[in-house]
Amino acid sequence: MTPQELCHLHPFLAALTEAERRELLKHAHVRRLKADDIVFRKDDPGDGLYGVLAGRVVVTVQSVDGKELILNMFGAGEFFGEIALLDGKGRTATATAREPSELLFLSRAAFLPFLRQHHEAAVRIIAFLCERLRRTTGMVEDSAFLNVSTRLAKQLAVLAGLTTSPATAIRLSQEELAQTLGVSREVVSRQLAVWRDAGVVELGRGRIVVRDPAALDRIVAGG
Description:
Blueprint: H1 3-9, H2 18-25, E1 28-33, E2 38-40, E3 48-54, E4 56-62, E5 68-75, E6 79-80, H3 82-87, E7 94-97, E8 101-107, H4 108-116, H5 119-145, H6 148-160, E9 168-170, H7 174-181, H8 185-197, E10 201-204, E11 207-210, H9 213-222
Antiparallel strand pairs: 1-8, 2-7, 3-6, 3-8, 4-5, 4-7, 9-11, 10-11
Helix pairs in contact: 6-7, 6-9, 7-8
């Protein structure tokens, strides 16, 4: 994916004209990372916005006893780091490349003057961040009110972007899946094994294939 193609996918960068995007991209550069390289750490200066050209990045927080929670995952065509881009404060979490990745970086110093001249882009980024906040609120609500199997089914459905019948493969380890829910790998593995035996999912190394999306929908609907 090229930087130009990536910008076409962003909620507010896509609203710019071709000339405006070209002008903005003059200030961007590509950063290449190996698997497990740190993009930024929690509390690092909020120096800019990242977009994923290739690879996969996870955003995590860690408890004092070392337990890790995955807040978000980003693949090719997705952006992250908007909050720190706008307020300039420290990063709210740590971002790590899970596989060899190419990231487009746009600095805050270059972006903010541009944003001040394009008010409609500012409105779009506000709407974008509001959607992120709604998603986070939903995660907190699920954690408080749903049991683990329901939360797991809902997370698989979200990650797979399930439609109806085609089997959907999710590039995610069971450890990472457990970290998105804040539970142990053993809990997730036991539930996945039950669903595997029932034909709902197929398990592989670093991937989960959803064979019966309707079954997950029924679990989620049942709460």
